[in-house]
Automatic annotation (TrEMBL):
<keyword id="KW-0732">Signal</keyword>
<dbReference type="Pfam" id="PF05938">
    <property type="entry name" value="Self-incomp_S1"/>
</dbReference>
<keyword id="KW-0964">Secreted</keyword>
<dbReference type="GO" id="GO:0005576">
    <property type="term" value="C:extracellular region"/>
</dbReference>
<dbReference type="InterPro" id="IPR010264">
    <property type="entry name" value="Self-incomp_S1"/>
</dbReference>
<dbReference type="GO" id="GO:0060320">
    <property type="term" value="P:rejection of self pollen"/>
</dbReference>
<protein>
    <recommendedName>
        <fullName>S-protein homolog</fullName>
    </recommendedName>
</protein>
<keyword id="KW-0713">Self-incompatibility</keyword>
<comment type="similarity">
    <text>Belongs to the plant self-incompatibility (S1) protein family.</text>
</comment>
<feature type="signal peptide">
    <location>
        <begin position="1"/>
        <end position="25"/>
    </location>
</feature>
Amino acid sequence: MKPPGRIGYTPVFVLVFCLCNIVLSDKVHTSIMNRLGNGRNLTIHCQSKDDDLGQQNISDGSEFGWDFSVNVGGTTLFYCDMEWEKVQQYHFDAYSFARDFTRCESQCLWLISTEGMYGLNGQTGYWEFMYYWPN
């Protein structure tokens, strides 16, 4: 019998284990859609600390996507460099746990257009204008 007022380690361990499994099992799909129009291709190279997705050429009207699991520490980050005829090179975070955990709960969708970049807000269901292209 345990003395009164003491908490056993087993319930705490089970709680931590369950919370870790919830975070680890969350799959996120990230997709970048080329909507530049007029047949313009988009070249993109995305990676994280652990995964290099390689350079991709996304034709007008197409998309490139990948799936991953967020890490326990809440530091998952996928970043991309992209370019097309108007924008020579642009760097952005395609998924940042700190920014996107609630906005992109299971999918993080990006739309690339001539005026800038839109991100789908999974909570509201609306496309939000996120970034202007540099001049």
